[in-house]
Amino acid sequence: MLASEALAEGLDELDLDLGAAAQRLLQDYAALLRDWNRTFNLVSRGDIPRLLERHVLDSLSIWRLIEGERAADIGTGAGFPGIPLAIALPSCRWTLIDRSVRKARFLREVCRRLRLDGVQVLQRDVRDVAAAQVAGAQFDTVVARAYGPAVTAVRSAAPLCRPGGVMLLMSGQPVGLLELQEAGFGHAERLEVWVPILNRTHVVQRFRKSSSGGSSG
């Protein structure tokens, strides 16, 4: 369980007003992750005592940057940042994409237990999802937190991002202008968001898809 007082203080620092029910969902999610992690090693065991600051609040730190009504979390792993953001922003429909069978199984159980009806879990490679258009229409926001090399994340996410939509890369690893243009992104910003308890900022790069929607795939 997450310490309720620490969670409330962290949310206050993020200026994120969540009611008791949403805070309880975050606590239940953390409890499920702890239980499953004993068998399935979904996150580093060293991170379990630091779930609140290392994963939950870090995920929620980008809540203001989410645009539109449809969002995708690529390489979601154990559900970060998608699950905390889906709890915090219930009007946004989330698609969580990861090729790991055990992680997808865990996420489906989370959605069932927490009744997150607006969340879809796809156990697929991101590139296959884009190629097969399994996820349907393109997303307003695509998030990558721990997907791999920045350039790979940008290329993989580009086909999923609608023209005019945004990609949020939770990494400071640079992406060259040429790579961005080839992926169809015409604007880039480097932002710093505050992570409570850790008392540090997290670099987030925001790339906006060109209105033409061009992409190299």
How would you describe this structure to a colleague?
The chain has a single domain, classed as Rossmann fold (3-Layer(aba) Sandwich), CATH 3.40.50.150. The chain has 8 helices and 7 strands. A 7-stranded mixed sheet has the order 3-2-1-4-5-7-6, sandwiched between helices. The model has no long low-confidence stretch (mean pLDDT 91). With 217 residues, it is an alpha/beta fold.
Secondary structure blueprint with pairings:
Layout: H1 4-13, H2 20-40, H3 51-60, E1 70-74, H4 82-88, E2 93-97, H5 101-114, E3 119-122, H6 126-132, E4 139-144, H7 150-157, E5 161-169, H8 177-183, E6 185-195, E7 200-209
Helix pairs in contact: 1-3, 2-4, 2-5, 3-4
Please indicate the percent range of residues in DSSP E strands (runs of 2 or more): 15-25%
CATH architecture: 3-Layer(aba) Sandwich
Determine the number of helices (DSSP H or I, runs of at least 4 residues). Answer: 8
Element-level helix/strand string = HHHEHEHEHEHEHEE
| Number of extended strands | 7
CATH superfamily: Vaccinia Virus protein VP39
Main sheet record: 7 strands, mixed
At CATH level 3, the topology is Rossmann fold
Give the assembly state of these chains.
Answer: single chain
C-alpha Rg, in Å? 16 Å
Mean pLDDT, all residues = 91
End-to-end Cα distance: 41 Å
How would you classify the helix and strand content by structural class?
alpha/beta
Give the overall silhouette: globular
Quick structural overview:
With 217 residues, this protein is an alpha/beta fold. The protein is 39% helix and 23% strand.
